[in-house]
Amino acid sequence: MVFSSAVFMFVFLPICLIGYYLMPKLVAKNIFLLIMSLLFYGYGEPKFLYIMLLSVLINWLIGLAINQFRTRTILPKALLAFMVVYNIGILFVYKYLNSIISNVNSIFDTDWPHPTLFLPIGISFFTFQAMSYVIDVYRGVAPVQKNFFNTALYICLFPPLIAGPIVRYTSIMDQLTDRKFRFDDFSCGIKRFIIGLSKKLIIANLIAVVVDQAYSASDVGSLSILMAWFGAFAYLIQLYFDFSGYSDMAIGLSRMFGFKLNENFNYPYISKSIVEYWSRWHISLSTWFRDYLYFPVFRTLQSRKNPLTGKRFSIRTCDFTALFVVWICCGTWHGAGIKYPLFGLYWFVFIVIERLVEEHLKKRRKQLKLQKKKSSAGIRALQHVYTIFVVLIGQVIFRANGLREAVRYLLVMFGVSGSATAVFDEKTLFLIQDNWVLLIIAVIACCPVLKVLEKRFTGNAAIALELVGNLLLMILFLVCVSYTVNNSYNPFIYFNF
Amino acid sequence: MKKFHKPKNLMLMIWFLAVILFLSATNASWFTSIVKPELQGINLENAKSRTDSWDMKFRAYFHYKEKLLDICGLSYLILNKKTADNFQFVKDQYNTMQFTEPNWNAAHAIESITVLNDRFAERGIPLVYAVFPPRFNADDFPLSHEVDFNGQRDENIMNETEKAGVNVLDIGRILGVSEQIVFKTDLHMKTETEFRAAKVLSSKLMDMGLDFKNFDEIYDPANYTIVSHPFMGNLSRSTGKYFTLGIDDFEIYYPGFPTNFTLINPSAHLEKHGDFTKTLMNGYEDDLEENPMPYWVLNYLQYPSPYYRISNHNIEDGCSLLFIMDSYTMRAATFLALGAKEITVVDPRGEGGNEILKTLMAEGDFDAVIVTFSGSDLYNAIDFSQPVQAAPQADQ
């Protein structure tokens, strides 16, 4: 079930809202919400419910055990290790095993059998959520949750279940047992849901047509240069508005039930560097890797000595090694197949380059005794262009059907595909004409225009702005309802997660 | 007294809840009717296959869907969109909807028409491949040079089939191509176009020596009462009536002269007797109160039945024709039925249609065969590989 479907909007959601608010006490509300979350997940794939529930049970038990034996030296560590192995294990089996067997068979010309395993939807998200809970309990950052149903509700809560954001237990633990209904929360949740729905249905789904025309061509080499670039650019738009739209809907829905989740996107396309981009894109994932992989690897290396030199590892070595590990894992998290770790490596290279350039500039400023000044408009513009260009190339790698096709696509983009490549074609010109209004709206929506307006407008102007904004959202919601009912083309891009 | 704190976004909240709850309430019984039978016998193994179709079925007959589609189309208009449904529908510069058709196979079309022609020629029955006008002029619609559309002119198919000995009637060249001959919102041609095309086809049959009766009476528009109804066709099913800046008018031609027919449809166990309106049409105009915007194209004949026969009792010794066609030329067939003794219609896509056609190819007694079917679809519908029964010898 997806949020932008008729069954969700006109069957599941009203039942969930009415049932939730009819429940007299918070305990009953939580249990009702848990049941509805399980129904949401089990709709269409009830077989995978047992995987999720088993994951909840095991992680809850491990959390209890870690808390119980906290004073022991080795047992908590062993339990933590078991938890990591178990969670990564189920991710490995369901997400990566088929692909690894295929690659081994292909490379070594073997004939290992493929297990018939389907990827349980959202497994990448709920395993990471479960892991973060147990790790936080182990670290003493979060108190253990002794109530199984509360733990289950945290892991299975339906709004962020299948496409994030990855919710940290510490951000939600108080809300599990202490939530009061506030009109403001509820209405803000609705507003956020409508914004997300509009992003997904109006912008992402419509621009997805261009992306499909570019990437589904039977021969990538037959694309014109303009189509290749247009398709790549359209994918930037589709990915952002689909993913952030889904996050907005998840945050909005959670708020309707009294849960406040952290933000997952912060206008990533206004970034001036790749480092900044990843602090604004899929924030819950990047911070997860930062807190649960980068820092542990960094600290471990920092406390060790280089076996070759006998000296401690330098800060730079610790930093870059930890970054390397994070980005290979982050890339791999995005999907099974050789292109995903390479996708992670791509970002690693640019982050390291930026770090080195920043270090060099800092050194030079120190040598010349210069203060760091705000960059000129020209430099800032170049930084934006650089960032968008690097992101665009990276997302071509991500979207293409395999590494080979990604390379071919990039070669077409730069006019070096080897075969006669037209610069533009009639179809691309038609698609540009078909989508130029949508693209202008999308580009504007990529920037924090509303935030700027809200800061500038005060008093009556602010009230008028809010009124106009709400009227627009009311219209957008009706449009979204019409798209939902019409909805013959509603791509779901999270099947890999 | 505690001051009432007006919640933020109150208007928005009320609107959201009102819309969701209203549409949920009005569609609750419809959803229940979909789900109830599916829940019986549901288990872990079949749950996915059953629930997968719920959303699609729910949306198919969603209450207020037509109004919502109009909103959808209006939003496309505001966004200056020319395409819908993942590039399946494209609006041209005349605001006429066109339908993309990937994997159009010209070789299949040529082969199927040629084989049909050869099989009937073995029995001395002439075949005419009647090519009705294309939906657009390719020079006016440059996108058609790179994307395949349904109803586009294919010179290659006509040339190759003609080279293979097929009698090709290019009705499109005779009538000319313009946006006025096709519906904006539907794949089919306007009734006036089918009327004119039927006239060209009847004239051709007469040139071939067939005994087509009352040509001048049948093809004089003054002999008909023409009634017009608003019509939104199958190409606007996901964009509503605003996207094309208006919908179509569907004209029904009621003959003003006496008519007397029998229509027999064996697969539907149906037998109709009476005049043109009673026999060859399906009475949609009598149900307008209940259904004000029916799909008028299907008000004619017996789509999608694979086989039916129309006998004209006002003609004793006229010609007998076999029509191999889809829904595209049903109205044209009714005009031809006015001047023929008998018309047999075959749509090989229908259940049993393939076998019926093969039997008719072997045994049917016709003065001519008219093929108006899209050649590529014909290839997919007919199993040409199996041998056809040998025709009885003339001296036996």
List the helices and strands and how they pair.
The complex is a heterodimer of chains A (about 500) and B (about 400).
Chain A: H1 6-22, H2 26-42, H3 49-68, H4 75-108, H5 123-139, H6 148-156, H7 169-177, H8 183-215, H9 225-256, H10 274-280, H11 283-302, H12 315-333, H13 339-368, H14 377-399, H15 403-413, H16 426-445, H17 449-456, H18 459-486
Helix pairs in contact in A: 1-2, 2-6, 3-4, 3-5, 3-6, 4-5, 8-9, 8-16, 8-18, 9-14, 9-15, 9-16, 11-12, 12-13, 13-14, 14-15
Chain B: H1 10-39, H2 47-51, H3 54-60, H4 65-78, E1 83-84, E2 89-91, E3 97-99, H5 106-121, E4 127-131, H6 155-163, E5 167-170, H7 171-175, H8 191-207, H9 215-218, E6 224-231, E7 248-255, E8 261-265, E9 270-274, H10 276-280, E10 307-312, E11 320-324, H11 330-337, E12 342-346, H12 353-363, E13 368-371, H13 375-381
Parallel strand pairs in B: 4-5, 4-13, 11-12, 11-13
Antiparallel strand pairs in B: 1-2, 2-3, 6-7, 8-9, 8-10, 10-12
Helix pairs in contact in B: 5-6, 5-13, 8-11
